[in-house]
Every structure is written in C-alpha cells, then in structure tokens.
Write a structure and sequence with these properties.
8 helices, single chain
C-alpha cells in the first residue's frame, strides 16, 4: 500500500516564530530575541533623545501634504554611517507617514521602518518626539501636533495594505517601544515579543 505524506502548510505564525527563534542574523548574536529587542530599544533611546532638530512651531503645526504613493527602488538618500549598509527597496508615503523597506547588506536581513513628519524632520521614536517637542514648544503644541497625526491613522493603515501588496517575504522590524508596538497593531501589523512583522498579502493566514 502506498504511503502518502500530507504537504505541510507553513502559516504566517509559523514563519514569524522561525524568525524569532532561528533568525541568527536578525538577533545579531543575542541568545534570545527578548535580549536583542531590549538592547536595541536602549540604544535607540540613548541615541534619539540626544539628537537636536531645527524646525519652527509653524512648520510643526502646518497642514500635512496629501501625497499618497508607493514606489520601488527609491533613490538613495543621505543616511548616517550606521545605515549605509541598508539598500532601499520600497518607499510608501501617505501624508505625514512614510514606510520604507530595505535589505541590510552587512547583517543579511530585511527590515522596515515607519516614520512620521515632525516639522521639517522625519522621525520614528514616539517617546523622543514627545520629549523634544514638549521641551521646545510646550505641551499644548505637542498635543496639537499629536491630534493632527492621529487624524491620519486611517491613511497609514491604507498605506500598510498597499506596501504589503508589493512585498513577497515577511519583513521583521524591532519596535522602538510599546507605544510603537501599539501603533503597528492599530494599523494591521502584527507584533510578537516586541518585533513587528510586515506580512505579504499572498501569505497564508
């Protein structure tokens, strides 16, 4: 009698778990993903809270552009030394929001980043944004800017869907904080153990 073997179906959850448990390049030598996430968040907090930015209060509270597009192979832009190994793959823009996917030539893994406009700057750390804006222009100005940003959350969710249609592999990214993780979940990006996953539309659910 012939013996058949059922085809194993790899779910999205299976693939995300593999990245967390077996992705040595993504863990960058840390024994566990929790240690990797904690270390990266600590580094980001130290880095981004020490940076200075130049923009006016008028720029901070100006209406956002209504741009909405997704493009492949965006032109390289000037980046810090720590990001020179990243090759940009996709860039999506929706008003103040931007999603970029990239390939890290040195670490050999894919990555993605969600940033938002803060005056004339583009940034991604909610805590450092709040601290810097409040210190510069006060709590009221920060609350005004925050309200403007959250009025565009639906645009970010739409952008996430469009970018997902352009990728063919699950892309992980460490969230910079629990606030960042909550934002990802709100716009349809799953988060496990502090890592967000941009999942292709073609993946098994």
């Amino acid at each position: 009698m012939a013996v058949g073997f059922a085809q194993t179906v790899r779910t999205v959850d299976d693939q995300m778990e593999d990245i967390l448990k077996k992705g040595k390049n993504f863990r960058k030598g840390f024994p566990t993903i929790n240690e990797r996430v904690a270390s990266q968040r600590k580094d980001w907090e130290k880095d981004y809270t020490s940076r200075t930015y130049e923009y006016t209060k008028e720029e901070l509270l100006a209406p956002f552009d209504d741009e909405f597009y997704v493009m492949d192979s965006p032109p390289p832009r000037k980046v810090r030394k720590s990001h020179r190994s990243f090759i940009p793959l996709i860039k999506g823009v929706a008003g103040p929001w931007c999603i970029t996917t990239s390939w890290d030539e040195d670490a050999r893994f894919y990555d993605f980043t969600i940033t938002t406009r803060v005056g004339s700057t583009t940034r991604f750390s909610p805590e450092s944004i709040e601290t810097e804006v409040v210190n510069r222009y006060g709590r009221e100005a920060y609350n005004q800017w925050r309200s403007m940003i959250f009025e565009t959350i639906d645009d970010l969710a739409k952008l996430v869907k469009l970018v997902r249609k352009e990728i063919n592999t699950i892309i992980p990214s460490i969230t910079c904080s629990e606030r960042s993780a909550r934002l990802c979940r709100k716009v349809g990006i799953p988060v496990k153990q502090g890592v967000a996953f941009l999942v292709p539309y073609t993946s098994e659910k």
